[in-house]
Amino acid sequence: MTQAETAPRLWIRDPLAILAEGAGGGIVVQGSRIVERVPAGARPAIPVDETFEAGRHVVIPGLVNTHHHFFQTLTRAHPLAINKPLFPWLKALYTVWHRLTPEAFRLASRLAYTELLLSGCTTAGDHHYLFPKGLEASVDIQVEEAREVGIRAHVTRGSMSLSERDGGLPPDSLVQDDDTILSDSERVLGMFHDTRPGAMVQIGLAPCSPFNVTKRLMRESAALAERHDCRLHTHLGETLDEDAYCLAAFGQRPVDYLEEVGWMNPRTWLAHGIHFNDDEVARLGRAGVGVCHCPTSNMTLASGRCRTCELEAAGSPIGLGVDGSASNDNSNLIEGVRHALMLNRLTYGAEAVTHLDALRWATEGSARCLGRSDIGRIAEGREADLALFTLDELRFSGAHDPLAALVLCGAYRADRVMVAGRWRVLDGHPLGIETGRLREDHTRLALDLFGGA
User: Fold this and answer.
1) Does position 272 have pLDDT exceeding 90, yes or no?
2) C-alpha 170: how far from its chain's center?
3) Read out DSSP for 103-162?
């Protein structure tokens, strides 16, 4: 028998509510996987070794974050950048981001992983594209920190290769040449990318956006992704300024650019995807290109509204992301679920988008964006990634539908979180992480490196 088959079985029993069919009596977890859904009023069909009474808890699949920039936790609410749209916001923060150090980046990653975990997120995606001198091992740091925190990670090796002198936005100090980027991309894929079901770490390739990378880098990244069976990620269609840039620089709109460089395929998922016309929505859907909806960031920067319903109807997987913590300004994915519901109801109408749609985007939809069928749902054979919330706070008093209450009443912090069958958050506290010390160290470095700029 395998180690998984001899592992103890845990019955998470009789939850207050659970986002799964036929599981009113809870679920049984063995090893890293869910092995049984228990109907309401029934007992498990297989013997169990332990029982957790979940009568106070609303159980949902662990949330899956598909877009973030961990380093930006160090420049939240920065006076140079607040109250600006995307391009001026970027140009302002480029003037300070070159000061990022390995120590600061490690703390930023640890803090972002911890924040996400506490919000019920069990798979944390990050898009790291900033490689000033001395920070060449950024991906290695993020993998180490994910393993330390115990969260599942999808780290994308981002990049910028067009600086201001080449017609791009970032300064010279923040870009690398294409050959350096491609070489390191191959290195981190060889070291860390795990394509097996249940993988705790996967790597994607993520040239930052059309306005700061070369077409060569986009094409060769696509070829590298094909060889290593990994995902492709980039910002696209976030602002009207991006449309104007692509028309001026390439003579084409962003989706045409994406097709020209060989990215119109199911390996690709895009961040934001706001400014697509009807034809582009249909083309993206036919190609199976995923879109990460970032409602909080889109509202903060006033970038626009993602056409979630049209994209999903066309065939594009829709996921959710918190985006960078300088354009959100936090890393709370369950809060992002609520924002997704509110913004999309404002766009499509009160009956068109439900709390279950928003939760589905943050779980199964996000998993599809990452190309994973082993997470995102509570079902036999899936990974035991779970977020358990209580409704004990005043904000939930009087709530009648527990699952709807999570979203409508504004759940903010999970009481328990399980990743791959192991508890990582208990009673609202992350195991093995001293959050007070983490906050002190992170704040000190944020002020030392970026304060007074």
Assistant:
1) yes
2) 24
3) HHHHHHHHHHHHHHHHTTEEEEEEEE----TT-TTHHHHHHHHHHHHT-EEEEEEEE---
Query: pLDDT tens digits, residue range 217-231?
Result: 999 999 999 999 999
Locate CATH 2.30.40.10 in the chain: 3-61+381-430
Report the alpha-carbon distance of residue 319 to residue 291 in Å, rounded.
6
> Nearest-CA neighbor of 338 among 278, 396, 408?
408
Instruction: Please list the residue range(s) of the chain that carry CATH number 3.20.20.140.
Output: 63-369
| Closest of 347, 334, 253, 254 to residue 299, by C-alpha | 347
| pTM attached to this predicted model | 0.97
CATH architecture for residues 63-369: Alpha-Beta Barrel (3.20)
- The CA distance from 15 to 340, in Å, is 26
| CATH architecture of the domain covering 3-61+381-430 | Roll (2.30)
List, in sequence order, every beta strand (DSSP E) within 14-116: 17-18, 26-30, 33-38, 50-53, 57-61, 63-65
- Strand-pairing partners, residue 65, are 124, 320
